[in-house]
Amino acid sequence: MLALAHTWVAKLTTAAVLAQLLIGVTASPFDAVLAIRSGTVAPNQECSSNSDCRSGNCIEWQDIYTACQRLTPSGDYAYNCNSGEYYFQDYCSGVAVGQACANQGECVGRCSKGKCVKTVSGKTKCKTDLGCSGLQVCRNSTCFLPAPKSLEPRESCKGDTSCRSGRCVTDLAERFIGEGIYPVQPSCDVFQKGQQGCRNFYDCYDAACLNATTTSYGTCQLAPDGERCVANFQCQNVCRADGICYTPAPGSVRKRDTCTESSQCLSGACNDNDFIYHYRPDFTKSDNSTFEWVSDLNCAGSPIGGKCITNDDCDAGTCKSGVCKGKPLGASCASKTECTSMSCTIPSGSKNGKCTKGSA
């Protein structure tokens, strides 16, 4: 998973500031409380409950998505959400069409002459989806009303009915693109297993995209042997290093190659707690010129006494006559994995030592 940079943003004491603006004099703490309780807190300012806000909606901080719905007076996003910046403060959402607004950042729609009004698809200019009313989204700086079930996975959206997957979500979980990073705004979900409508494997969360062509959509299903794949979860069995689904013979999969169960491995152990990244063809391009890093289960190496074909199959010792064998006590060694005792004592300043009994 890609790591997110969590940036703490200083919590503003907006209650007192709001009170000063509302009554025009120096505010006491009691005045600040009255201001909040009156339901007069402006959009994008701190709140503690829905009743505090003019919009009637106090957004609780949760993740990148909620931080990125906070706007500037000009209607831009207040934070660089692609950096993973969080905002640890609840704040009021923008007001709906028909309510009073002081600037574009306070309105879900267009702020015109002090009132939030509906936007016109194809005409009203915008900076974010929040600058467009209803189900309209911002495309090429202009509000646009998508046709029902027309938006592709990962396109920003305002409602389920606009998405081909039937789901407009704020917690889109990625398997390939920026794995694990949530979108900065509501986006159309990818397809689940069994759903029809995928263009390529990026559109499916837990399966491969089968039977898709340049003129028709495919279906998200587990791929049988012989079909292309990028990760194990797309196959009925295992995704081979060359990107083809196959069924491995029992005990045939070597160390660090992908597996789904231990019986497939030469060592007898498929590591369910040791995912490693594999480099496989990206089949969204006909010439397979690009590759995709994916994380999959892999076969462990064999211990002393385990099966092997070459030394690379052994986690410890060397491969002799199909068995991983360690060196005896007193033999020269450069690491503990060479020794049957799993203990190699190396003198200070030396590269090599001797196999020793080790600690009990």
From TrEMBL:
Signal peptide: 1-27
Keywords assigned: Signal
Keyword Signal: yes
Origin: domain of life: Eukaryota
UniProt-recorded name of the protein: Uncharacterized protein
Species, as recorded: Tilletia horrida
